[in-house]
Automatic annotation (TrEMBL):
Organism: Allonocardiopsis opalescens
Superkingdom classification of source: Bacteria
Name the UniProt record assigns to this protein: Glutamine--fructose-6-phosphate transaminase
Domain SIS, chain residue ranges per copy: 33-174, 197-332
UniProt GO BP: carbohydrate derivative metabolic process
PANTHER family: AMINOTRANSFERASE-RELATED (PTHR10937:SF8), GLUCOSAMINE--FRUCTOSE-6-PHOSPHATE AMINOTRANSFERASE, ISOMERIZING (PTHR10937)
Amino acid sequence: MTPTTTRMHAEIAQQPEALRDTFDALLPQVPEIAALARQTRQVLFIARGSSDNAGVYGSYLVQAHAGRLASLASPSIATTYRKDVDLAGVLAVAISQSGRTEEIVETLRWAAANGARTVGLTNGAGSPLTEVADVALVTRAGNEVAVPATKTYSTQLAALAVLALGLGADVDAGELQLVPDEIERMLGQANGDLEEIVERLAGVGGAVVSGRGLAYSSALELALKLKEACYLHAMGLSYADLLHGPIAVVDDKTPAILLAADSGPTLDGTVELARRVTAAGAAAYGIGGGDRLGQACTLSLEGPRLPEWLAPIGLIVPGQLLTERLARRLGINPDAPRGLGKVTQTT
């Protein structure tokens, strides 16, 4: 029987407290990060799954606001091909919810052996990842029981925002304090067309989830959540990649879910994409983007009132609520999706 209350829903609700605790714990480490920054030029993010989606946020944030080249690692170069790469001048940032995924720990060791300075970002205090890293950023999400990552993902984004400060990002650090309060506000009110979107998604087999720039990370994460917890064939694509051909799959049976901050350089394109989708006879469901995206979409969910650099932390929350509610509507227990465990080991 599908539960009427779930651990996933409870853990979504715990995010404001988890974010406050994480910022309080990590902001004092900005000088440590800055010391590593002075020894490096570019950033390499090492992760899998939800943590890899967090790394996408880190990559956009570091490049757009700290002026450093950033990229995502291919861990199999270290663990399967076992090839050395010159990583002098690189800050390698490994992200793992548990800190115990062997592939990620091994890849961070490999990075250090190849000349990188290292950061381990994890919710697992005392985990192997923290022991390998030069600097450990330990989030304060608390124990997460449900298999789909919720509060561990949002606190990873929070930690990456702190990392960006240490790397010299041209942002206002005081705006970090807006995030927990804004998510608390969002959780405390009914969110737009949630139930109607759930009913419509319950009748389709797939969806395209899209965002651009900083919002792309949480579009990827929402697509992953819909696959994990609802068994929906959800494709996470950037706005730009979607227009290069895959938009052909969007039709009356394959809606688009579009994520955007309320401001920033990618909003105009996301609004135009929504208009293009609906003009083709398909449904577009918006998350965030203010009134402009909401009016261009078939149905919409309110996003966070946050500056663009922090918006992805809040944009995922309506997506998490949508995933949890849709899973229950489909008769699935989102706490324990089939075939998945809390820690995935890869080699």
